[in-house]
């Protein structure tokens, strides 16, 4: 595949000379680097980097050739690297239940061209958002879920994701717990928005939990999804100050804005290839 603007992400054991070798590799191919970010984790002894580049003469690179040469020439560093076309939007499937504020914001940003994603489908266990989604000429898939059909509906969900060639699932207040079978092979590809400042108030009704504890701050957390409920690597968070007079319903309404904003920032970071997984944490080059 040919591309003009490229993003390189890589992870490797932390070792002297790795960033110099990577930049020299690009320099030899007439690459003009527009962004270089890196991080050495002294706990895990790993090195993380993101490099954005293009040719000085604005001509194309061959992504396959770059990837093969990079792996061969820097094999001494045991690098896990990937090259992305920076001008190609991230193919995305969104899942939502009844509450649509996060979906509405994502659709608006996508519609005006301010979010680098390509929405291939919207999946829901309710029909609440059907008219809005189809008005935006996006395929809408109604997949109601119960204890009898969960496995079958998850298979349809995952087939839609794979058949559309998508790279990202956004759980925009999708109130279903996804199974281990569904999540298999989706590390770093599924982002959830949880309406609390994790690791506090996991699971259902976090605003009610917060009210019962009398907290003075509520929040929202966007994280990658794994097998443990609300335990995946955190990408982005924000908070909002409240007081003793706020009911769970007021907290919920107040939280809509930060939930939408936090999810939007997380999706943008992912789509711009600014996030690298580091065990149960993330490295975010914002």
Notable traits:
286 residues, alpha/beta, Alpha-Beta Plaits, Rossmann fold, seven-stranded mixed beta sheet, four-stranded antiparallel beta sheet, 8 helices, globular
Can you characterise this structure?
It is a single chain. This protein has helices spanning 18-27, 63-73, 101-111, 130-135, 150-163, 180-183, 206-213, 248-271, and strands at residues 2-3, 5-13, 31-41, 46-55, 61-62, 80-85, 90-96, 117-124, 140-142, 168-171, 190-194, 217-224, 234-241, 275-278, 281-284. It is 31% helix and 32% strand. Strand 8 (117-124), helix 4 and strand 9 form a beta-alpha-beta unit. The protein has eight helices and 15 strands. The chain folds into two domains: 2-85, ACT domain (Alpha-Beta Plaits, 2-Layer Sandwich), CATH 3.30.70.260; 90-284, 3-Layer(aba) Sandwich (Rossmann fold), CATH 3.40.50.170. The chain has 286 residues and is an alpha/beta fold. Helix 3 runs parallel beside helix 8 (248-271) and helix 7 packs across helix 8. The strands form four sheets. Strands 9-8-7-10-11-12-13 form a seven-stranded mixed β-sheet, sandwiched between helices. The chain has a four-stranded antiparallel β-sheet with strand order 3-4-2-6. Strands 1-5 form a two-stranded antiparallel sheet. It is globular, with a radius of gyration of 21 Å.
Task: Itemize the secondary structure elements and their pairings.
Layout: E1 2-3, E2 5-13, H1 18-27, E3 31-41, E4 46-55, E5 61-62, H2 63-73, E6 80-85, E7 90-96, H3 101-111, E8 117-124, H4 130-135, E9 140-142, H5 150-163, E10 168-171, H6 180-183, E11 190-194, H7 206-213, E12 217-224, E13 234-241, H8 248-271, E14 275-278, E15 281-284
Parallel strand pairs: 7-8, 7-10, 8-9, 10-11
Antiparallel strand pairs: 1-5, 2-4, 2-6, 3-4, 11-12, 12-13, 14-15
